[in-house]
TrEMBL record:
Superkingdom, natural source: Bacteria
SUPFAM superfamilies: Periplasmic binding protein-like II
Subcellular location: Periplasm
Name of the protein this chain belongs to: Sugar ABC transporter substrate-binding protein
Length: 418
């Protein structure tokens, strides 16, 4: 008698790399005729809510979940995720150390990276050349402000710099956390007290508001990744500091009017290089509630393997492979040729350390977030205050004070201190 196929329910996010994984899933099904894949594809915010509810209530709706570096260490520690088991062929040592560490707790991996990213400077080399400025591989924020002032030309539709301003813990606060880190700041001190009224936060946020008011596009407080990507591709941004994953889009002539004019450097630094560029991975994890552990392990191993990357390259070309996960991808000459951002992206990822991302010692893991359950609410609230300061609806000092009060309330409520 033929065995009934095991159905794996996979929750994932609706972005390009994941949609490609669904198309290529038939290769996995052909190799594993006893396993059927069922996809639940959701917008990022909805995905987070659904998988968080499911895992916290042990709902068992999903056998594989797409989660990030924020959830993985929290859920792994709580025993909500299966430890990922890999075989020799998988070659876990080929995973970039920053990715492996960010998805591990006490040396055990609780998710595997499907694609990874850091943040970096993407700039218009033609505009920098025109004003006679050579951008360093590791510029300072002072250099960035100086260049922004020289290339800012709103009459001709070019703004000196574009940066996120839309509120959200993963939107403006991802960027602003790195700006605060490099100014020598942190979210919480070793007693878990929020630090929003400290000098580094004041310096960083004042610098940011002033920079965008002077040399940014109008309406910056409504811009996040997608809005700025559209502006950049239209030729309206002189510079942009954001996710390395953007590099492949802005250098693609099919999407970008300035594809041949872009160049890349490391995220700018100020007081310290620590925490200047973020670290993220969209990753595949197996909830401990699933009854289909073996099939799920098989699938996450396949989707994050060297063979999968080769399959994408063969199907769509090397410029389309998921990046930010494996040393072997960056060592591949065909990938290097197809992706002119590859070297800068790898340096950025390798330099990010989620276990040591702030100048003063911090009690949390994470570069552009603190991997504690309370951070989502705190990041959302602070993000709204920062966006209001950028829009000129409040002062920077008042916004930081309001953020400090909100963060303190959450931390007391959760019992971090009395």
């Amino acid at each position: 008698m033929a065995q009934a196929a095991t159905e794996l329910v996979i929750a994932t996010v609706n972005n390009g790399h994941m949609i490609e994984m669904q198309k290529l899933g038939k290769h996995f099904e052909q190799a594993n005729p006893d396993i059927k894949l069922k996809w639940v594809t959701l917008e990022e915010g909805t995905l987070r809510q659904r998988v968080t509810t499911d895992i916290a209530t042990k709902g068992g709706q999903f056998d594989v979940m797409t989660i990030g570096m924020y959830e993985t260490p929290i859920w792994g520690k709580k025993g909500w995720l299966q430890e990922i088991k890999t075989d020799v062929a998988y070659d876990a040592d080929d995973l970039l150390p920053a990715m492996r560490n960010g998805l591990s707790v006490d040396g055990k991996m609780f998710a595997v990276p499907f694609y990874g990213e850091s943040s970096m400077l993407m700039y218009r080399k033609d505009l920098a050349d025109k004003v006679g400025v050579k951008v360093a591989d590791r510029p300072t924020w002072t250099d960035i402000k100086d260049l922004a002032s020289k290339i800012h030309d709103p009459k001709n539709g070019v703004y000196g710099i574009c940066l996120r301003g839309k509120p959200g813990w993963g939107d403006n606060m991802a960027f602003l956390s790195t700006l605060v880190n490099t100014h020598g700041g942190q979210w919480f001190d070793m007693n878990w007290k929020p630090q929003l009224e400290s000098k580094p936060w004041k310096d960083a946020i004042n610098f940011y508001v002033d920079l965008l008011k002077s040399y940014g596009p109008p309406g910056s407080s409504a811009n996040s990744f997608n809005e700025i990507l559209a502006l950049y591709n239209e030729g309206k941004c002189g510079m942009w500091i954001d996710a390395t994953i953007a590099a492949s889009f802005i250098s693609d002539p099919k999407q970008s009017k300035v594809a041949d004019k872009v160049a890349f450097a490391q995220a700018p630094t100020m007081v310290t290089p620590k925490g200047a560029n973020w670290l993220w991975a969209w990753s595949l994890a197996i909830p401990s509630g699933t009854k289909k552990v073996d099939a799920a392990q098989k699938f996450v191993n396949w989707a994050t393997s060297k063979d999968y990357i080769q399959l994408v390259a063969k199907t769509n070309g090397w410029a389309a492979v998921p990046t930010g996960t494996r040393k072997s991808t960056y060592a591949n000459p065909e990938f290097q040729k197809a992706a002119k951002f590859a070297a800068a992206e790898k340096v950025a990822i390798d330099s990010a350390n989620p276990n040591d991302s702030t100048l003063p010692k911090s009690p949390y893991v994470g570069v552009q977030f603190a991997a504690i359950p309370e951070f989502q609410a705190i990041g959302v609230s602070v993000g709204q205050h920062m966006s209001a300061a950028l829009a000129g609806k409040t002062t920077v000092d008042a916004a930081l004070k309001a953020g400090q009060i909100a963060a303190d309330r959450e931390m007391r409520k959760a019992g971090y201190y009395k």
